[in-house]
Amino acid sequence: MTERSREIFGNAISRRDYQRAVHSKEKYARKFGDDSRELYPVEIEDNPVIGDRLGVKDIRLGQALRSGEQIRPADFDHRKGLIVGNIRMGFGHYRISMAMASAAHALGYTPYWMDLNSYPQTTATKLISAQNDLYSLGSRLSRFRVFNKLVWEPMNYEGFRALTYNASDQKKAELMAPLFREIPKDIPLLATHVWPAQAALHGGMRYVVNAIPDNWPMALHLAEGSLHTVQCNYAYQGYRTLYGFAKKKVLRSIPPDQLIYTGHYVDHEIVANVQTDCQARIERKKRGEPMRFLLTIGGAGAQRDLFSAIIRHLLPAVRNQRAALYVNVGDYRNVWEELLADIPELGRCATEHFLNFEEAAAFADGALTDSVEGVHAFYHRNIFEAVYITNLLMRSCDLLVTKPSELAFYPVPKLFIRRVGKHEMWGAIHSAEMGDGSLECRDIPHILQMTDLFLGENRELIRMCENIQRNKESGLYNGAYRAVELAMHLREKS
């Protein structure tokens, strides 16, 4: 196993920081076990939700084999196969993975879905799940101003930026390497979180692309040995120089052949229909049809007060057929119940599209051509359904209301509400500069001011739609295709 914690892109890690990284690995090994000697049989299954739409096949790992048991190789497509490595930590990395799988499928490849957080019998999943629980707790606590100011934003902004953080993460990723023991090493892997990229490299995978999210450069996202891709030119410059990763110290740069600007990671189905969907938004606005707001609400609860205020503010416009609402609470039924408790009127006027993905998807498809009125709520237990329904609704909505996370890079008009973590700030800044999203509105009065601008006049929405159409022509939203092509090219040129 290659040592990747002593030196990162030619920048030496101090002995003290290296020993801290080693001790952190030892601590996690004691807590979650060390399965480095285990063999996990691999099976391939069609994904029941996005298998038909995106051609996705799931990589499943069985229980560790007992002594003397024989391993049966899984039936991978070694010529056209591409592994999309990810974790579930919120919806963001799953959404980026879906974009990559969609692009791979459109380009004629077979996408294999490998979620490192879905194998509970392994050390890797136990470790990642514990980290996810901590991150979710931090997200929930971030709604408290003091905690957010003193702990959450500094950690997400500067803590994860430090090069020493990457040294520690690399040691943790060594505990995840056993997941790749029986995965064919010649199949390219495109990771949408750094841990699958790091773990794949420690596990001997030869062709790894590390698709970096967000627009704020952080050492957290480095996986030396992989090809790094970024969505924005600002991120490219930050990663190229590793600026600020060791405070004021000037560091050795990332070699130019290990960092590529691709543009935004967006699903093929959305990119291919950008011009048509934006023109439909413009025509609906000019005809005075109800303006369709898509609200995507996470389960951490950090922004529920903001969404409650938006819904309460828009309900009179819904009654007057000036607005229509799509509300997706993902796989968090409790969030919907809390909204109903806050806004009793919501329960009397909302149509619930719950636990029936086929029906919800049919509504989303029909909304592309049909008129839409009222409030439509969406909830699914299955994570793929919970995430993907937003993608389907996005095409027929007029305005997406979201925090500036991975959705900041999608080609749909956006109203950005308060971030969860200061690193997300730069997604809103980039989107506003590209003209396809608003500035970040961090409090209720400014959110409602922006809501009224979109609702009360034509100019803002039409301006964003026209900018999106121009961005499409420039190739801004082609990042997923580019990342897939880069991953496949790694093997071709070897």
List the helices and strands and how they pair.
Elements: E1 7-8, E2 11-12, H1 15-32, E3 42-46, H2 51-54, E4 57-61, E5 81-86, H3 92-106, E6 110-115, H4 123-141, H5 145-159, H6 163-174, E7 189-191, H7 194-202, E8 208-211, E9 227-230, H8 233-241, E10 259-261, H9 268-271, H10 274-287, E11 291-296, H11 304-319, E12 323-328, H12 333-342, H13 344-349, E13 350-354, H14 357-366, E14 374-379, H15 383-394, E15 399-402, E16 414-416, H16 425-434, E17 437-440, H17 444-456, H18 459-474, H19 479-492
Parallel strand pairs: 4-6, 5-6, 5-7, 7-8, 8-9, 9-10, 11-12, 11-15, 12-14, 13-14, 15-16, 16-17
Antiparallel strand pairs: 1-2, 3-4
Helix pairs in contact: 1-6, 3-19, 6-7, 10-18, 11-17, 14-15
Secondary structural class: alpha/beta
Report the sheet-strand fraction. Answer: 5-15%
Number of strands: 17
Strand order in the sheet with the most strands: 3-4-6-5-7-8-9-10
What is the end-to-end distance? 21 Å
Q: Major sheet: size, sense and barrel closure?
A: 8 strands, mixed
Poorly predicted runs of 5 or more residues: none
The backbone outline, from C-alpha atoms, is globular
